[in-house]
Design goal:
The protein is mainly alpha-helical and about 425 residues long. It is built from 12 helices and 10 strands. Helix content is about 50%, strand content about 5%. The protein has a two-stranded antiparallel ribbon. The protein has a two-stranded antiparallel ribbon with strand order 3-4.
């Protein structure tokens, strides 16, 4: 592989990524038509984080006075739709800035942003086994009732990363308490969760098992495990792997079923053949990361095949990119809108496979997906990449600054590139 990456990406210029009127952005010129050199790709990712994302977050999204993140803004001009905050956005933002501090730059400003978000959300730490309130005013007044499992687990993920950044281990303890409380709720047969954002017409299932839940459980657990052994979190990680690979993975069509009954049987309703391919692809790279942590090549290879299956099935062969949901597998009924986070999960997964195996198909997949994202979501003149749009990405969402999936993709892949450059492009040798 040497220091050349991923043939076929083509040329990239600054005009593809946004106007200099909003944030200083250095041009990435003279890229070879045959593809990006690893160093040039590193330059691109570094510029996206430090020349566009962080400056615009600082100016338009972060509440420097009261703490937290106001993501409901017009991405074309930075005007706020409202200044409300949500528990899951606070957890996500806390994680982003803590991870940034831990892994890319020890800038005290990043740690301060994370700290203020932590202070804001922990004023509302729920008692017993209740979830965090869903939404708040900008000064912290609750605006809704209890949220859901996602809200609390994203707060836990953020606290675990903040614990590492601050050196204050009490936040590992708080994070773990939240995770175990959520798990106890999740394991109750009367756990109430309606997966309406996936399939509005579906019948409610008591105590559902949801692929997306296992996904955030796994990420929250591994945030703690990355910093030392913990039997409870190891047990939870084992449960997540078992649930995904032995229950949610449908043996008939080799796609993940998003929703199962409490006993892991398939529901006798519209969820029976429902596959949320976006979560499936996202779940795969998280499972890949866990396989790498365990140094389990057999597990890594199995997940690679599942990843390939999901990206192949979800690919839009006509207009490019990936579809997020297959409402009914047998009838081939798709949700054909496009969401940024899914495309970026493909970029994380393909980069991770390329890093550790050097497989050409993974490089090609990365190239194709980055080219699509560059043209479709990084709209010229916008402060932030578009978070979603129609199938053709002509009509796209303009009222949300994506501050989790997007920077997570940029940061994880930048770190992967650093490692690859250090090895002169050779596969990691993690598995021998």
């Amino acid at each position: 592989m040497s220091n050349t990456l991923l043939a076929g990406l083509g040329s990239i210029s600054v005009n593809a990524f946004g106007s200099e009127q909003h944030a200083a952005y250095e041009s990435i010129d003279n890229l070879e038509s045959k593809g990006l050199d690893l160093n040039k790709l590193h330059e691109f990712y570094h510029a996206e984080i430090f020349k566009r994302f962080i400056p615009n977050m600082d100016k338009y999204v972060i509440d420097h006075q009261l703490g937290g993140f106001m993501t409901s803004i017009d991405i074309t001009n930075g005007k706020q739709a409202n200044s409300n905050k949500t528990a899951w956005f606070e957890g996500r933002g806390m994680w982003t800035y803590s991870f940034l501090y831990n892994n890319l730059e020890k800038n005290p400003k990043y740690l301060e942003v994370a700290r203020k978000s932590k202070d804001f959300i922990l004023k509302h730490l729920p008692e017993d086994d209740k979830f965090f309130t869903s939404s708040y005013s900008n000064d912290g007044k609750p605006l809704s009732g209890p949220g859901d499992i996602y809200s609390s687990l994203f707060v836990a993920e953020g606290l675990a990363e903040f614990a590492k950044a601050s050196g204050d281990k009490q936040y590992f303890t708080i994070a773990k308490k939240i995770i175990l409380s959520c798990l106890a709720r999740y394991d109750s047969p009367d756990y109430d969760y309606y997966v309406a954002y996936l399939n509005p017409g579906a019948t409610k299932i008591p105590g559902p098992r949801v692929l997306g839940h296992w996904m955030v459980f796994l990420r929250a657990a591994t945030q703690i495990l990355e910093n030392g052994p913990d039997p409870d979190m190891e047990k939870l990680a084992d449960r997540c792997l078992d649930a995904c690979l032995n229950h949610h993975l449908n043996p008939q069509y080799q796609l993940f079923n998003e929703v199962l009954n409490h006993d892991f049987s398939r529901p006798d309703n519209s969820y029976k053949d429902f596959s949320y391919t976006g979560h499936g692809i996202e779940m795969c790279w998280m499972l890949h990361f866990e396989a790498a942590r365990r140094k389990d090549k057999k597990l890594f290879d199995r997940i690679t095949e599942i990843f390939k299956r999901h990206v192949t099935v979800a690919h839009d062969d006509v207009y490019g990119g990936y579809f997020r949901a297959l409402d009914h597998v047998d009838n081939n009924v798709w949700k054909v809108d496009k969401v940024l986070w899914l495309q970026e999960e493909v970029l994380i997964g393909s980069m991770f496979i390329a890093e550790h195996t050097g497989e050409e198909w993974a490089k090609e997949l990365f190239n194709e997906t980055l080219e699509y994202v560059r043209k479709s979501f990084a709209k010229p003149g916008n402060l932030f990449w578009a978070s979603a749009g129609d199938r053709f990405m002509k009509d796209y969402a303009k009222m949300r600054a994506e501050h989790y999936h997007h920077p997570r993709h940029l940061m994880l892949n930048l770190l992967a590139l650093k490692r690859m450059i250090k090895r002169n492009g050779k596969p990691s040798g993690l598995f021998g």
